[in-house]
Amino acid sequence: MNEDLTIEHFMAGLIKRNPNESEFHQAVKEVAESVIPFINQNPKYKKARILERMTEPDKVISFRVAWEDDQGDIQINKGYRVQFNNSIGPYKGGLRFDHSVNLSVLKFLGFEQTFKNSLTTLPIGAGKGGADFNPKGKSDREIMRFCQSFMTQLYQHIGPNTDVPAGDIGVGSKEISYLFGQYKRLTHQFESVLTGKALEFGGSLIRTEATGYGNAYFMEEMLKHAGHSIKGKSALVSGSGNVALHCAEKIIQLGGKVLTVSDSSGTLYVPDGIDQEKLMLLKDLKINRKQRLSGATELFKSKYLEGQKPWSIKSDLAFPCATQNELTGTDAKLLFNNGCIAVSEGANMPCTPEAIELFKDNNILYAPGKASNAGGVAVSALEMSQNSIRMSWTEQDLEEKLHGIMKNIHNQCVHHGDDKSRVDYIKGANIAGFIKVADAMLAYGVV
Ligand code: GLU
What we know:
Layout: H1 7-17, H2 22-41, H3 43-47, H4 50-54, E1 59-68, E2 74-85, E3 91-97, H5 103-119, E4 126-131, H6 140-154, E5 163-166, H7 173-187, H8 207-225, E6 234-238, H9 242-253, E7 257-263, E8 266-269, H10 276-288, E9 303-306, E10 317-320, H11 329-337, E11 342-344, H12 353-361, E12 365-367, H13 369-372, H14 375-389, H15 395-417, H16 425-444
Parallel strand pairs: 3-4, 3-5, 6-7, 6-10, 10-11, 11-12
Antiparallel strand pairs: 1-2, 2-4, 7-8, 8-9
Helix pairs in contact: 1-2, 2-5, 2-16, 5-16, 6-7, 8-9, 8-14, 8-15, 9-10, 11-12, 14-15, 15-16
Glutamic acid (GLU) binds at residues 92-94, 116, 166, 168, 195, 348, 376-377, 380.
């Protein structure tokens, strides 16, 4: 027990215990690489086997979700909640409804959430859940019936002091409303059991904007630290959901020029930049009318690059805001060759390990999602606070708090990741996120 923990030995054990979970392995490896050297310098964590404990979820709940489609046919989906770690607060993290959802994806997301939620400095533990249900092309009534069935299984495992889910890919305000309605019907309790609620029944201002705004704020802090700013810089944004569109909105407000947004079929390229007016049209197209981005070419002057990702377009900054592993080593090379200086992740784990390696080797500033996209869950925690005191804070108050939290996360990354010549934001985020949870676990003894 005196010899150092090695990354190879640790990862071999993890892979053996969790076979065929490549996304989970990827997320853990990235953390292990920065945290294991720190653990070896701090034997109290090694002796208590904190990292081994932290990589095993507290509890994994898996259930059947049966529902009836509009034709009267019965459909069956897999539903899950991974309660990863509640050392520093009730489990907290989103629900994802997407065809790609499986246990590996939810374990990677739940594990990342542990560090992200710790970085916010707010009292929230980590969880993630969802289903392999694809809301695309489903009618409103089908989505409602699915959400009701899902909550009928989930409700007994969650609660305002136990586990507080929210949205993620495929789960927005509409789904949260159906889920909350069903929870209330089953328990007869009106309580803060979900965040991302509508304003009429306990939601918080700024929650919708928070992940995207926070990502732009983080980029601004990272650039400022390196002597730059967003003002006057061009930016590629991928995705066109809640995170991407609000990230674009804050980049525009900070004086940047947003050249792209994208969906699973291609990229919308606006060489003159997306202004606030065009952004409003895009929000209406994507959020209200749920249409494809290609439809935007009829609304304003733009090109739709069918089947292409944004990363081949020349730009100063990149904001991957779509989904995991969307930005590969090849894409990173394109960004570098075109003079990109900084990347800030709005999605969870959107850059592959090869892409991250390339950023590192070429001194491209890189912010991992667990730091840069923590604004969403941070405002979720503020929604819980407002629900507890039965008061609502103003938009200005909340945006100031969000901005302060993002600055604080940036400072923590600099504090723990400063390697003299440059800041290693992965190392900084991982070590800062680790310490708070690890110290709580140590305090609890062997549990
Ligand atoms: N799904 C978001 C995330 O990845 C937000 C979770 C929440 O608000 O609880 O952090």
